[in-house]
Amino acid sequence: MSAPTGVADLGVAELYDSDFVRHFDARATLWEHLICREANAAFHHRLQLLGDRPLRVLDLGCGTGRNVRRFAHAGLAIDSYVGVDSSARMIGAARAAHPYSRAEFRHCDADTALVADERYDLITATWLLSHHRDPADLIRTATERLHAGGRFMALAITDSNRPLARLHGWRFRHFLHSHPVSPESLRNHALSFEHVSANGLISMIEYHPQTPTPPQGIRDTMRI
Fold first, then answer.
1. For the domain 10-207, what is the CATH superfamily, name and number?
2. What are the boundaries of each domain within the chain?
3. What are the backbone dihedrals phi and psi of residue 105, each rounded to the nearest 5 degrees, phi first?
4. For the segment 130-143, what is each residue's pLDDT rounded down to a tens digit?
5. CA pair distance 209, 191, nearest whole angstrom
6. Which of 70, 97, 87 is nearest to 153 (CA)?
7. What is the 3-state secondary structure (H, E, C) of the chain?
8. 15-32, pLDDT tens digit by residue?
9. Would you tell me how many other CB atoms lie within 10 Å of the CB of residue 134?
10. What is the pLDDT of residues 47-96, one digit of tens each?
11. Please, which residues have CB within 8 angstroms of residue 123's CB and are 6 or more apart in sequence?
12. For 8, left (φ over 0), alpha (ψ -120 to 50), or beta?
């Protein structure tokens, strides 16, 4: 078995294709409530600002399809939804959880999904950046696949000097094979909005396509 393109190492593929998937949703729900509540709230708020026009959505690293429920809760009008994940077991769980929805789930990695010459109104990546070998390249490629006025939105594990955040960061690296992303590197890619949770570990980031480097006065809520 070889590591799928775009993941940090073989451990990522092995983890998500193991029995870990059986308890993934329960663990993710607990994590969202205990660690990244503020970043999730910011993500939800930014989704609500997208308006009511029908959106073509690409969900990178979709896992068990949790974002399908997230989008519905935010009231998005979805024209089409494609979720991709490099884990066959996660895709199987997503299809089982949404058997009657119009959502389409594909077993492939993010880089492969972005190679296709298709355009989207919204591309999301929840927790994928910390598994990717080159987060900056993924951000650049994703924004190139957006329609004019589209958005690329991500939740990411980021570096922090806070003791509690560093402890959580070690746990993510050890148990989830995640590699926290440098907040400074995230600022350099057409950043339109950035929000970092109070614990300094979880970031919510939104990008616009074909946007020049942000000026000095851009909103920045970095708290690390």
1. Vaccinia Virus protein VP39 (3.40.50.150)
2. 10-207
3. -120, 130
4. 888 888 889 989 99
5. 9
6. 70
7. CCCCCCCCCHHHHHHHCCHHHHHHHHHHHHHHHHCCHHHHHHHHHHHHCCCCCCEEEEEECCCCCHHHHHHHHHCCCEEEEEEEECCHHHHHHHHHHCCCCCCEEEECCHHHHHHCCCCEEEEEEECCHHHCCCHHHHHHHHHHCEEEEEEEEEEEEECCCCHHHHHHHHHHHHHHCCCCECHHHHCCCCEEEEEECCCCCEEEEEECCCCCCCCCCCCCECCC
8. 777 776 677 766 677 667
9. 12
10. 999 988 999 999 999 999 999 999 999 999 999 999 999 999 999 999 99
11. 57, 58, 59, 60, 142, 145, 146, 150, 151, 152, 153
12. alpha
Angle at 52 between CA 48 and CA 56, to 5 degrees: 95
Structural tokens at position 162: 């806070």
Compute φ and ψ for 82, nearest 5 degrees.
-125, 120
Buried b / exposed e over 52-69, threshold 16 CB at 10 Å, is eeebbbbbbbbbbbbbbe
Q: Is the dihedral of CA 131, 134, 137, 139 positive or negative?
A: positive
Q: Are 114 and 145 in contact (CB under 8 A)?
A: yes
Token output for 113? 């999904």
Asked whether the CA dihedral 104, 97, 6, 79 is positive or negative, the reply is: positive
Residues 6+ away with beta carbon under 8 Å from 69: none
Cα(158)–Cα(169) distance, rounded to whole angstroms? 8
